[in-house]
Amino acid sequence: MMKYLRDRRAIASMDEGTAALIAGLAGLVGALGGAIVGAVAAVRGARIGAEQAAETARQQVRDQASVDHDHWLRQQRLEAYTRFLAGYDDCTKVMQRIRRQILDMSAEADPPEQDFDEVAAAVNALRRLRQSVKLVGPDSIHSRAVALEDAVWDYHAALQDLAEAVAGADPVTDQVREEEYQGMRGTADAHDAFVRAVGSLLEHAGTPTT
């Protein structure tokens, strides 16, 4: 009987030990599981944070690239417009000189052909400069540049007509004089329209400086 009781107590003690061991294991597993879940969440959070940081950096790069491109384009446009206007000034100087020569010409005098060749060369140079305006745009500015170039060519033709009328010893008709005057005014009006268009573009671009 005593042996039986000792065996029962031993078994009970073993059961308690086993239960304690199982409880301890369960607690360890729970702790490990919590740690693993926390680690996974931390890794996932870090990955999401890294992706967001990378996207923010990429957006900043894109924004900076856009700003740099806009600034570059603005500068290119200003340079093209300035060169075109300088080319127009060159044409105007030559044509005004020819106009004075024509008005001072005596009857049957030879027209200033060499000077007209100089005008043609200046207008051809203006055409090349206008192509630069076309490259940088926009279309609204290029169309004004085309109108100014056409006006210069028209005035060139009007001056030639006036020179031929004077050289031919024919009375210079009111029509010839009016065409020459309108040609001169046409270049001035086209120039003003181009300058106003450029000013409007720069104003809307938010800079007086592309």
What are the main properties of this structure?
4 helices, rod-shaped, 210 residues, mainly alpha, de novo design (two linked rop proteins)
Short description:
89% of the residues lie in helices and 0% in strands. With 210 residues, the protein is mainly alpha-helical.
Mean pLDDT: 78
Number of DSSP strand runs: 0
Structural class: mainly alpha
Shape type:
rod-shaped
CATH architecture classification name of the domain at 68-204: Up-down Bundle
Give the strand content.
Answer: under 5%
CATH top level label of the domain at 68-204:
Mainly Alpha
- Annotated CATH topology of the domain at 68-204: de novo design (two linked rop proteins)
Rg over CA atoms, rounded to whole Å, is 44 Å
Write the layout of secondary structure elements.
Layout: H1 2-104, H2 113-136, H3 139-167, H4 174-204
Helix pairs in contact: 1-2, 1-3, 2-3, 3-4
Overview of the structural elements:
- The relative contact order is 0.09.
- It is built from four helices and no strands.
- The N and C termini lie far apart (107 Å).
- Helix 1 packs antiparallel against helix 2 and helix 2 runs antiparallel to helix 3.
- The protein has 210 residues and is mainly alpha-helical.
- It has a domain of 137 residues: de novo design (two linked rop proteins) (Up-down Bundle), CATH 1.20.1440.
- Helices cover 89% and strands 0% of the residues.
- The mean pLDDT is 78.
